[in-house]
Amino acid sequence: MSVLRPFKANDLFRFNNINLDVWTETYGITFYLTYLHRWSDLCFTQEAPSGRLQGYILGKAEGAQADWHGHITAVSVAPEYRRLSLARNMCQRLEIVSDEIYKGIFVDLYVRCNNALAIKMYEGMGYTVYRRVREYYGNLGLGKDGRDEEDAFDMRKPLSRDASQRSIRSNGRDMIVSAHDVA
């Protein structure tokens, strides 16, 4: 049985099997170390009994007042460990910490609009599209249906402090903003 545990700095030398994936954003070492220093309680890894890393999640707390929230910066599972609910479990842990420790209003994340599998997974976990962010991941030109394939959906899930669900909207796919408008 695998273990969900805090992400440690030395895990950076052991996670290539997870990061070498077309959908996974990779960052420089200082980026990861900043997260581990500032939001260590929102960074986890899933480890197999053999010691092999199966997946990880990096999160942070950000915003102010009614916009105070947990943010999933990265969640990725190695291809050979997918469809085992590892991403779901890591996201749930981040949601609990965001709710109970940071007192967040919601949790959000960004996902490529053309990553249908991830969108379906997040929707199954209770996330909804809040808005579409044009060229969030850059600009590779227009893809099929005249849409930029580097757009992102800003997906959100309300936490216990958002009983009225003000952090979500039903028409999020129709709300289009520029990447410059996203803080």
Structural description of this entry:
The protein is of the alpha+beta class. The chain has helices spanning 16-19, 29-38, 86-100, 116-124, and strands at 3-6, 43-47, 53-62, 69-77, 106-112, 128-134, 152-158, 176-178. The protein has an 8-stranded mixed beta sheet, with helices on both faces. 33% of the residues are buried.
Strand order of the largest sheet: 1-2-3-4-5-7-6-8
Backbone shape: globular
Describe the biggest sheet? Answer: 8 strands, mixed
- Give the helix tally: 4
Strand content: 25-35%
Distance between the termini: 39 Å
- The averaged pLDDT comes out at 91
| Structure summary, number of beta strands | 8
Helicity, as a percent range: 10-25%
Alpha-beta classification: alpha+beta
Which residues form runs of ≥5 with pLDDT under 50?
none
Which series of helices and strands comes N to C?
EHHEEEHEHEEE
- The rounded Rg comes to 16 Å
Task: Jot down its keywords.
183 residues; alpha+beta; eight-stranded mixed sheet; 4 helices; 28% strand
Task: Walk me through the topology.
Elements: E1 3-6, H1 16-19, H2 29-38, E2 43-47, E3 53-62, E4 69-77, H3 86-100, E5 106-112, H4 116-124, E6 128-134, E7 152-158, E8 176-178
Parallel strand pairs: 4-5, 6-8
Antiparallel strand pairs: 1-2, 2-3, 3-4, 5-7, 6-7
